[in-house]
TrEMBL record:
Record-linked InterPro entries: ATPase_NBD (IPR043129), Hexokinase (IPR001312), Hexokinase_BS (IPR019807), Hexokinase_C (IPR022673), Hexokinase_N (IPR022672)
Residue ranges occupied by any Hexokinase N-terminal domain in the UniProt entry: 35-229
Entry GO CC: cytosol; mitochondrion
Coiled coil: 467-504
GO biological process: glucose metabolic process; glycolytic process; intracellular glucose homeostasis
Name under which the protein is recorded: Phosphotransferase
Record-stated family: Belongs to the hexokinase family.
Gene Ontology molecular function: any one: D-glucose binding
Organism from which the protein derives: Plakobranchus ocellatus
Enzyme class at the top of the EC tree: transferase
Catalysed reactions listed for this entry: D-glucose + ATP = D-glucose 6-phosphate + ADP + H(+); D-fructose + ATP = D-fructose 6-phosphate + ADP + H(+); a D-hexose + ATP = a D-hexose 6-phosphate + ADP + H(+); D-mannose + ATP = D-mannose 6-phosphate + ADP + H(+)
């Protein structure tokens, strides 16, 4: 259901705030004060979120303007995707999906609103994630070959869409330059190069897949948008909340001052914001906690992806771990007793945050199981309540920060009713993320604007196929139009010749 900006979705919010306060009920006030002094930096005010929203707008404008694009953190790359599906897309398509430690190959059949998919997941080993670009793309080509063998596809020429979920500067629908690796990848020789060329080079090195050529390359945000737009035509924003975070949206061409394409209809283009880098220039330092600074310092990309590090699933568990450890060291948790696991970076998984938040507060069964996994032998019900409180604060901040970004995009577009297509494990599996975002976006949205958050079903796979399908449809329409124009020209010349013959006679 869509929600008006003026409509307060408070029943859930009030219940949740009541639940959070009840977690601390019965604990001595002096003890709670000590806890809150440590955790307060995670609990931002409404004014702070509005500041974040305003700063995001400034960063978007900088990314869209040629004078400031080069130094902008939020790059706002045009994707060259101009149209969403119209329902007429039909046929079989291949899709590739690379956005984390897994790589997928998919065979997708489109028949109007009906979509059928077959897929296989292949692991990207750590040594390949940190190896050379040739190693990575050779591995991808090997996976494609195995998939095609399994499905007897070698004799067919199928349009291919590639979801490549890393920051890219697109120079065409089938040309994307990797600007920087994220999410644990560090393959040499890829940054600054066209990933489609690298893919084709790896395919050509094999010599046995000459029918495979990439028609379109997108990222997962575009995939989420396209996947939802297949059934909800008013979908104009794509959002990823998973290992990383990013968003795309539909922008009017006259606002895209960096646009170098044609101005034919439709006069719009999907913009890949790459908003994970928001804050790289220090503009978000006013909300960074010591926990955030520690995560950034020990990351493989210090000073980069600051906004992402406060929101995404790759870091949320570690933020919670650092806060829990700080409380423990102040003898406010586990009687000051820790464990090797709790003191190990990355060992408190983001899935723990979701599981603890979804646990039954009457018995904390799941929370206690997690404590056992972490070898925390000394724990009380109060410890369970406090850890739940930490997870709630970390989750709420992440959801509200993402909401500030989405509200900024919705306000910028000014569309009366917009669907936001959302994908990613954090949004999909966290018990409260959707509700928290509905609450905060509603508060930040301009009056009379409506929105809906819609879970994208396999946007990275289905979305890539849809972009390839739309590209194939638009290409055919252009070819048909050109052919019609040529026939019209031939008919005109023929009529002129006939007129000349009549005059001669």
């Amino acid at each position: 259901m869509a929600h008006m900006a003026t409509e307060l979705i408070l029943p859930h919010s009030e219940l949740r705030n009541e639940e959070i306060s009840s977690l601390l009920r019965g604990i001595p006030a002096a003890f709670v004060d000590k806890v809150e002094n440590i955790l307060r930096p995670l609990d931002l005010t409404d004014e702070r979120y509005r500041q974040v929203m305003d700063l995001m707008r400034q960063n978007l404008d900088a990314g869209l303007h040629p004078d400031t694009h080069a130094t902008a953190n939020v790059k706002c790359f045009p994707t060259y995707v101009r149209s969403v599906p119209d329902g007429s897309e039909n046929g079989d398509f291949l899709a590739l999906d690379l956005g984390g430690t897994n790589f997928r190959v998919l065979l997708i059949n489109l028949n109007g609103q009906e979509v059928t998919m077959e897929s296989k997941i292949y692991i990207i080993p750590q040594h390949i994630m940190l190896g050379s670009g040739d190693q990575l793309f050779d591995h991808i080509a090997d996976c494609i070959f195995k998939f095609m063998c399994d499905h007897q596809l070698h004799d067919r020429r199928l349009p291919l869409g590639f979801t490549f979920s890393f920051p890219c500067r697109q120079e065409g629908l089938d040309r994307a330059i990797l600007t920087t690796w994220t999410k644990g990848f560090k393959c040499a020789g890829v940054e600054g190069n066209d990933i489609v060329e690298l893919l084709h080079a790896a395919i050509d090195r094999r010599g046995d897949m000459k029918n495979v050529r990439c028609l379109a390359v997108i990222n997962d945000t575009v995939g989420a948008l396209m996947s939802c737009a297949h059934s909800a035509r008013n979908c104009a924003v794509g959002l990823i909340l998973g290992t990383g975070t990013n968003a795309c949206y539909i922008e009017d061409l006259h606002n895209v001052k960096t646009w170098d394409g044609d101005y034919n209809e439709p006069k719009q283009v999907l913009i890949n914001t790459e908003w994970g880098a928001f804050g790289n220039d220090g503009c978000l330092d006013f909300i960074l906690t010591d926990f955030d600074k520690s995560i950034d310092k020990h990351s493989i990309n210090p000073g980069k992806q600051i906004y992402e590090k406060m929101i995404s699933g790759m870091y949320m568990g570690e933020i919670a771990r650092l806060a829990i450890e700080r409380l423990r060291k102040h003898n406010l948790l586990f009687e000051g007793e820790g464990s090797y696991h709790l003191s190990t970076r990355g060992r408190f998984y983001t899935k723990y945050v979701s599981e603890i938040e979804g646990d039954d507060v009457d018995n904390f069964t799941v929370t206690k199981q997690i404590f056992e996994e972490l070898e925390l032998s000394t724990h009380t019900e109060q410890d369970c309540r406090l850890v739940r409180h930490v997870c709630s604060l970390v989750s709420k901040r992440a959801a509200y920060l993402a909401s500030a970004g989405i509200a900024c995009l919705l306000n910028k577009m000014g569309r009366r009713d917009t669907t936001v297509g959302v994908d990613g494990s954090l949004y999909r599996f966290h018990p409260f993320f959707h509700d928290l975002m509905m609450e905060k976006i509603t508060q930040l949205l301009k009056p009379n604007l409506k929105f809906k958050l819609m879970l994208s079903h396999d946007g990275s796979g289905k979305g890539a196929a849809l972009v390839a399908a739309v590209a194939a449809r638009l290409r055919k329409e252009a070819e048909d139009a050109q052919q019609a124009e040529e026939l019209e020209k031939e008919a005109f010349l023929l009529s002129k010749e006939m007129e000349n013959v009549e005059v001669d006679n």
